[in-house]
Amino acid sequence: MNDEAIYRSLAADLTRYATALAGPDEAADIVATVVTRTLARRGGLAGLREPRPYLMRAVLNEVRSRHRTRTRRPLVTLAEGGDPAVWEEPDLVLELVEDLPPRQRAAAFLVYWQGCTPTEAADLMGCRPGTVRRYLHLARRKLEEALRE
Fold it and tell me: Cα separation of 114 and 91, whole Å?
């Protein structure tokens, strides 16, 4: 299989994964960054033994990197004013899930939305199944606490 065929077979899954982790605004850019880096550094996608797990881990790592960068930068506040109807509050649960750390969000997406087992999710995330179960536990606990408030 050549690079283009591999990319075409994985692009939709990678984009869905990146969307779940970073949101729709950044997903395409994250996937493009990961694929471009892989093509430049590894000599192509065809040279990877197992491209899907490698690229899924790379997407997670890119999201984590961007998350770290974002938390180091001061937040820019929007100017007051304008029509308040434009700034409707998003669904509470979705907002809480978006606030989870990237690894917990990744585990939740892979297990609850993609139907992966913890073992399959661990392979894609580059960790052990017990670690995935721990991320899921932490995510559920954080969501339960936030919903009680």
Answer: 21
pLDDT in tens, 32-66: 999 999 998 877 899 999 999 999 999 999 999 98
Q: Cα(first)–Cα(last) distance of the chain, in Å?
A: 52
**Domain edge (last residue) among 72, 101, 129:** 72
- What's this model's pTM, rounded to 2 decimal places? 0.64
Cα 109 to Cα 17, 21, 52, 60, 81, distances in angstroms: 7, 8, 16, 12, 36
Note down the domain range covering 143: 92-149
Closest CA to 125 of 97, 101, 95: 101
pLDDT tens figures, 98-133: 889 999 999 998 998 888 899 999 999 999 999 999
80 domain-assigned: no
**How many angstroms separate the CA atoms of 135 and 137, rounded?**
5
Whichever domain contains 120, its CATH number is: 1.10.10.10
Residue 28 to residues 18, 37, 47, Cα–Cα distance (Å): 8, 14, 23
Q: What is the DSSP letter of 111?
A: I
